[in-house]
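Summary for the steering committee. One of the milestones for this cycle was to obtain a three-dimensional model of the protein with AN7 bound, which we needed before selecting residues for the alanine scan. The sequence and ligand used are listed below.
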Amino acid sequence: MPVGRPFISCMYRLVCVHCAAVYPADQIIYTCSRCGHLLAVEYPLDELSIDRSRWRRRPLSVWRYRELLPVTGEPVTLQEGGTPLYHLKRIGEELGLPHLYAKHEGMNPSGSFKDRGMTVGVSMAVELGMTQVACASTGNTSASLAQYAAKAGMPAVVLLPAGKVALGKIAQALMHGAKVISIRGNFDRALEMVHELCLSHGLYLLNSVNPYRLEGQKTIGFEVVDQLGQVPDRFVLPVGNAGNISAVHKGLNELLALGFIDRLPMMTGVQAAGSAPIVRAVREDLPAVIPELSPETIATAIRIGAPVNAEKALVAIRATGGTATTVTDAEILAMQRDLARKEGIGVEPASAASVAGIRRLVEDGQIDRNERIVCVVTGHLLKDPETVIAQCAPPCEIDADLSSLLSALSS
Ligand code: AN7
């Protein structure tokens, strides 16, 4: 046991999703030491007494739901969660979907949903007595970890795939003081390397293989149920490492077990056409994903070929009667522009993939028009300014007089 704050671990434990091996909550472990599969946090739900009216009296945020989170002490928080749920009126009208919504996770402190995971993950790092944190990242995880590590006063190491991370995300990781390393390899290789580093050198791994991080991310589902006042029929998420779709499913399953909701939404994953191992596994009904060795897409956030949480995500999609679809880079960028110009919602390309995926599924005749659909848009427009600039005409520069202005406006 590392030295740290006193740790109360009686209320929950870690359980292997494959062989059901059980581990104590304070063991530093990321995958099952018996079979190598993923772990999940398990609460004694029938022993917890949770008062939902107490939840409603707290502000909408990750920490509204703290009875279903693993942190026992004071959390490391930057006020994450409580993000807007927008009705997509114009895009919904075009698609013939009157009940289409977007949960804008770009409105979190670092500009992506990762903050929900990091507030919990970094709080757990403190609680477990760890002194350094690390991750591999396509960008957003590194930005978020850097920010929460700064808040905790803990050094952070982040590994990025060289040349494949959007500018805003690198800027954040650097400015918040993480040690930023670019590897000549892709994200999947960076994750293997950082996992090895953490196991051999005692850093705390905060990728989504870490079951505590996913606990924070499940609150997206909790907030949507509270904001809509009901369970949506379908929950749509962009999928990279497949942590977020797994986390939302886990959380809603807990609400179901507690009797707070009476059904689950159809969990629906969207991947970029050049990086779609989960979609392939769903379409071909494979028992496991076949890694994509050279994933490629303009949505660099989800340029991931070997999704670590595939096992959980396939269960989420299959058990809820959901589905998965691909979208092309052109479809992603078209939806990024539509969200920006028709709804006033600025998101990065990977985030537009969820709504682009709904457009594709509608065109393929796979959506009932009366469904209540929530698309998670995962990261802010400013994360990837270069992809924005490349799609837009530059500002028109004029002489500083009124007649030049009037002729510019009329041309
Ligand atoms: C904007 O930052 O994997 O399926 O290292 O940044 O849970 O992996 C980012 C993933 C969707 C996919 N949208 O979520 C990373 C990283 C955005 C993202 C995803 C990511 P998962």
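Key point for the committee: The mean pLDDT is 96.
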